[in-house]
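Table 4 source record.
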Amino acid sequence: MGQDMSTQTLNSIASKELYAQYDWYKNTFPPVVQKSCDEFFLPGFKFELIGISKNINVLMDKDYYFVTKIRIDKQYDMFFRSSDKAISLILDRVLGKPNRSFNLNRMTDLEAKIITSFNDYMFNMTSKLLSPPPPNELRRTDFDVIHLTFLIKDIDEPRFGKFIVSLPAALLKPDTITSKGDKFDNTSFKTSTLDVKIKIGSTKFSMYDLKTLDTEDIVIFDNSNTKKMTLVIDDYEKEIKLNPNLGLITPIDDNNGGNNMGANNLWDSIEVEMNAEFDPVKITLGDLKKIEDGMVVDLTSIYDNKVTLKVEDKIIARGELVIVNDRYGVKISEVTAKQKPGAAPAAGTDEFGNENEVMPDDETAAADNTDDETPAADQQDEEFDYSDFELDDEDI
């Protein structure tokens, strides 16, 4: 029933009544609709109720319909809408499959007569379920309609189409359900929590800068703002308005120009997009509601969480959040990215000709024992590998 209702309809009083009365609709109309079809065409089709709605626009999306309007009285009408797919499978069974594909705009008089006669027959059956029209006290603009959407299926073939019966709401008297206990209060769940991701920002980073990334370095995210972050739940994203935690301010100059002065080849100059996000955090439904309403939310607790840096959803490093000027940055505490294969530095110097900071006194012995170094512990999350961006010599 709820498949074709908008959020606005879901929150309306009318829709709540519709939910409570669903069983009445399901038990009242589908049997009569099925019986009408069986008696008119003989058994061969199956009708299944899939939606009850006051909004027909979503129901009719991407389909073409043949519409029959039948007047009940001067005030009320019923509508029967058959999709082109529904008409095609009906006519194929009744008249046999034609040599051409069905086109609603090219219906013959015979085809239109069959569908119209079927709608007339169903009107005679379903109209018996309606209450007598009240005195004409209501103006036309006050009348409302309930749409019952059915799938009509051919029992012998995997084919189906839509069939929509539109009924005047004023002539329907569904059973009502009265709650015997306390009514549901959505504020009861405001303290409940769910896991979400919070994106801090992004920046362009060269492969050279990635290779030289080390602990205690600070990465500043150009595409960030201390007054907002982005909340992510599955495929849904929403901007969060924040009061920045001034305790994170780091008094350093923003000199991260990303000028690649140390890059010595094309591969080192490649720029990739690095993203920063908190490890999954818990947020209450109450705070989530505030975010939806556009309010400034106090999420002070998230600042204590570790931040993960990623390139193409692969982990580069982890660290702690800092604020540099009006942007967020991350102070690196752990680098997890793997070095480019074949790029191991020579003994005593790194691959860029700089002296290694950590070398034993006996450089020869250190070089001989290079293969005995213990590899880093395996990471559960997928790590970034520089070889993903490796270029062949002829490409450089």
